[in-house]
Structure formats: C-alpha cells, structure tokens
Amino acid sequence: MIRFLLRRCAQAVVVLLLVSVIVFCLLHLLPGGPARAILGVHATPTAVAAFNRENGLEGPLPVQYWHWLTGVLSGNLGFSYVQNESVASLLGQRLPKTAFLAGISVVLAVLIAVPVGFYQAVRRHRAGDYILTTVTLVLYSTPAFWVAIILIDVFAVRLHVVPAEAPQGSFSEVLSDPHALVLPVLTITLVTVAAFSRYIRSSVLDELAQEYVRMARSKGAGSRVILFGHVLRNAAGPVVTLLGLSLPFIVSGTLITEYVFNYPGVGLLAFNAATSQDYPVILGVVIVVAAATVVGSLLADITHAVLDPRVRTAAGIA
C-alpha cells in the first residue's frame, strides 16, 4: 500500500509541474508579455523595463519560471496590480466561499444522483427510465449559465421566492444569508446530477451483467440482497473515482454560476482577472485548481482501491 501511495503521489507532483510549466509559458508568450498586459499597451519602454526588472522578468524563460516556482513553494503566488493585493490573499478570501458552494452542491448531487441512476438501471427500458434519461440528457446538454438564467427567471423574477443575486461580503456574511444561496446551489446541483446519474446508471448496468450476479440468483438470493448487498457496493467504486475526476467539470460550472449570480468566489475572481488581463491572478487560480484536481484524483484512486479488492489486486497492493 505504501508503494502504491508513493507512486500516485509522485505522479501527482509530475502532473502539477507540467501544468505549471505549460500555463507559465503560455502566459509569457502573449503579445507584449506580462508587462504590457498589466501596464497597458501605452506604457513607455522605460516603465516596461522597470516592471520587468522589479518582477524578475528580464532573464531567460527557464530562469523566470524557477524564480516563480520557488516563490510559489514559499507561498508567494504573485501580486495583482489590478486589485493592488497579493494573489495569495485574494485566493484566501475567495477559496472558502467557492469550496462551500461546490461542496454543498456536490453532496446534494450525489444524494440525488445515486438513487436516480440506480433506479434507472434497475428499471431500464421502462417508462421511468425513459423519462429520467430524457430529463438528465436535457440538463446535461444545457449550459450552466442557461440553467441559471432559467432559474432566475422562474424563482426570482416571476415567483419572487428567492433573490437573484448571491450573498455578498465575507464568508461569515455568506453563511448568514442561506436564502440567497438557493439558486447558485440549485444550478450546480442540477448540472452535476445530470452528469453523475448517467454514469451511475451505466456502472450499475455493468455490475448487473457480471457473473457473480447470475451466480447469486441461481443460488436463490433475493433481489434486495443482490442489489444492495453486492451491486451497489461494487458500483460505488467507480462513482468515487468519478467524484475526483469530475472536479474540473464542477469548477467550470462553479465559475459560470458565480459570474451569473455575482457570487464572490474564485470563479468570479478568475473571470474578472481574465477580462482585466490580470495574469498573476489567472496563473494563481489555475495552479490552485490544478492542485485541487490532482489531489481529488489521488484521493479518489486511494478510496477506490480501499473499496474494491479487484483494484488492489490489479495494482499489486492486495
């Protein structure tokens, strides 16, 4: 098990380094470089040279990358000249809000998607399966921003049940206004349920076709024992992996949702940074999201190995 963990951690570190190299190089290949992007196209050569000298942007690209990487490892993610604040401080203010919004939405999505997907698999090719498949397919095909706009129009504009704008202020102020969180949470939950339930249905159908299910039926085991004692447990492993691998999808949905509802999280921060060409913030957000994705995938692999003996056997950690 220790060898398995070390191998997975080493792979995670390599992936993070590759992501940082690619994003760093792409941002520095922009016309004019970071100096022109931050100071503006009308900045004088003297101002550009002074900016490059102050921020260590004069040397070759590998040297600049090493300078930036050592700063990141020491907690220095750069400085936002647009917002006149360090990137680490901005992320520290926004990350708890985004983590709370995404966490609540994913928990609700899993609680809904597991029974829905399980029911679809058990009742496949019947009216309930067709209806739920159609609904989830529509939600899966609908962009998150369009789902958000429809929810605003129905529940905020027409019915006046909940406010259209998400709560503002600090994390404690966001928590103190749960009424305004309903629409953002509902938007991410609906989009995530659509993706998860389809995968769960497929996973359960695969398990129902396995030899052990036919063997259990031939021995007289009841449907409840087979479904809840064997199939559901074996189908849970891929679902756990899906949670880790779906983090980029969830983050992208959170970004759009935060913009539509003006929710003060990392998604809105990234959008504003992109529109204002605040490249230190963009780089910091990408690195944090990439780290969260890699860690989520790593935890999903470990949990899947713990839940499913077949994975441990295949990985040589049984």
Going by helix content, strand content and strand pairing, the class is: mainly alpha
Q: Which CATH class of the largest domain is shown? A: Mainly Alpha
Main sheet overview:
2 strands, antiparallel
Q: In the CATH classification, which architecture of the largest domain applies? A: Orthogonal Bundle
Radius of gyration: 24 Å
Keywords summarizing the entry:
318 residues, mainly alpha, MetI-like fold, 2 domains, two-stranded antiparallel ribbon, 2 strands, 78% helix
Give me the secondary-structure topology.
Layout: H1 2-28, H2 33-39, H3 45-54, H4 61-73, E1 79-80, E2 85-86, H5 87-122, H6 127-141, H7 144-158, H8 171-175, H9 182-208, H10 211-218, H11 223-245, H12 247-261, H13 266-275, H14 279-307, H15 309-315
Antiparallel strand pairs: 1-2
Helix pairs in contact: 1-14, 5-6, 5-9, 5-14, 6-9, 7-9, 7-12, 9-11, 9-12, 11-14, 12-13, 13-14, 14-15
Question: Your description of this structure?
Answer:
The model has no long low-confidence stretch (mean pLDDT 81). The longest helix is centred in the N-terminal third of the chain and has 36 residues, at 87-122. The chain has 318 residues and is mainly alpha-helical. It has 15 helices and 2 strands. It has a two-stranded antiparallel sheet with strand order 1-2. The chain folds into 2 domains: 32-76, no CATH class; 93-315, MetI-like fold (Orthogonal Bundle), CATH 1.10.3720.10. The termini are close together. It has helices at 2-28, 33-39, 45-54, 61-73, 87-122, 127-141, 144-158, 171-175, 182-208, 211-218, 223-245, 247-261, 266-275, 279-307, 309-315, and strands at 79-80, 85-86.
